């Protein structure tokens, strides 16, 4: 149901998605959920390595990610599709340019500081760090901002992530993001538009 409903509040105090309910245990925040699931189900070691230094590298990336890649990449989707859908009018092109400049800076740091000459973020095997990164970076692609096109090192990393996950599963997982433009054709309840438009605009400030 709606994330702001009373039932949703019982799963996540923040009333936001994603949220996990495992029996009587509830948990919010996507990174915390990923780490919890990897521990509970004893996933292969490469996802969240038992080696303390490799694990610290995953943690390092996850900490950096929120204030950098996540601070910019999803905004492309809000600017090009979601905010126009709810407000009924496009945002100035300068707003997208500003976000793309911030994202470009983050991607340069991502390549130079984290990826370097490695196959994946922490070395020769895929980890949760790569999963968290790729989900965010596919969002600009879904709205026509192909951030991989002129970045061969980043493009090759994406290809390796696709291969490691499996191409079919990869595109299945990103199907909604890659088809996000189709949302522009749906009809939104006017009352919902009125409620959400100011909130969405505030997110970009």
UniProtKB/TrEMBL annotation:
<dbReference type="Pfam" id="PF00043">
    <property type="entry name" value="GST_C"/>
</dbReference>
<dbReference type="GO" id="GO:0004364">
    <property type="term" value="F:glutathione transferase activity"/>
</dbReference>
<dbReference type="InterPro" id="IPR051369">
    <property type="entry name" value="GST_Theta"/>
</dbReference>
<dbReference type="GO" id="GO:0005737">
    <property type="term" value="C:cytoplasm"/>
</dbReference>
<dbReference type="GO" id="GO:0006749">
    <property type="term" value="P:glutathione metabolic process"/>
</dbReference>
<comment type="subunit">
    <text>Homodimer.</text>
</comment>
<dbReference type="InterPro" id="IPR040077">
    <property type="entry name" value="GST_C_Theta"/>
</dbReference>
<keyword id="KW-0963">Cytoplasm</keyword>
<comment type="similarity">
    <text>Belongs to the GST superfamily. Theta family.</text>
</comment>
<dbReference type="InterPro" id="IPR036282">
    <property type="entry name" value="Glutathione-S-Trfase_C_sf"/>
</dbReference>
<dbReference type="InterPro" id="IPR010987">
    <property type="entry name" value="Glutathione-S-Trfase_C-like"/>
</dbReference>
<feature type="domain" description="GST N-terminal">
    <location>
        <begin position="1"/>
        <end position="45"/>
    </location>
</feature>
<keyword id="KW-0808">Transferase</keyword>
<feature type="domain" description="GST C-terminal">
    <location>
        <begin position="51"/>
        <end position="192"/>
    </location>
</feature>
<dbReference type="InterPro" id="IPR040079">
    <property type="entry name" value="Glutathione_S-Trfase"/>
</dbReference>
<dbReference type="InterPro" id="IPR004045">
    <property type="entry name" value="Glutathione_S-Trfase_N"/>
</dbReference>
<dbReference type="InterPro" id="IPR036249">
    <property type="entry name" value="Thioredoxin-like_sf"/>
</dbReference>
<dbReference type="InterPro" id="IPR004046">
    <property type="entry name" value="GST_C"/>
</dbReference>
<protein>
    <recommendedName>
        <fullName>glutathione transferase</fullName>
        <ecNumber>2.5.1.18</ecNumber>
    </recommendedName>
</protein>
């Amino acid at each position: 149901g709606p994330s702001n409903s009373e039932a949703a509040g019982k799963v996540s105090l923040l009333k936001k998605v994603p949220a996990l309910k495992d029996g009587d245990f509830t948990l919010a925040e996507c990174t915390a959920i990923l780490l919890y699931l990897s521990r509970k189900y004893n996933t292969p070691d490469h996802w969240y390595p038992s080696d303390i230094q490799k694990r610290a590298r995953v943690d390092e990336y996850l900490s950096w990610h929120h204030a950098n890649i996540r601070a910019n990449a999803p905004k492309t989707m809000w600017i090009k599709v979601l905010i126009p859908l709810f407000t009924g009018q496009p945002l100035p092109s300068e707003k997208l340019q500003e976000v793309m400049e911030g994202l470009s800076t983050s991607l340069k740091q991502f390549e130079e500081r984290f990826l370097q000459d490695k196959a994946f973020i922490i070395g020769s095997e895929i980890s949760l760090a790569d999963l968290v990164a790729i989900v965010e970076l596919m969002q600009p692609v879904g709205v026509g901002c192909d951030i991989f096109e002129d970045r061969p090192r980043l493009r090759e990393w994406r290809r390796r992530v696709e291969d490691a996950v499996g191409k079919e599963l990869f595109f299945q997982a990103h199907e909604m993001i890659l088809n996000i433009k189709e949302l522009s054709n749906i009809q939104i309840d006017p009352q919902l538009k009125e409620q959400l438009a100011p909130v969405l605009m505030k997110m970009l400030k």
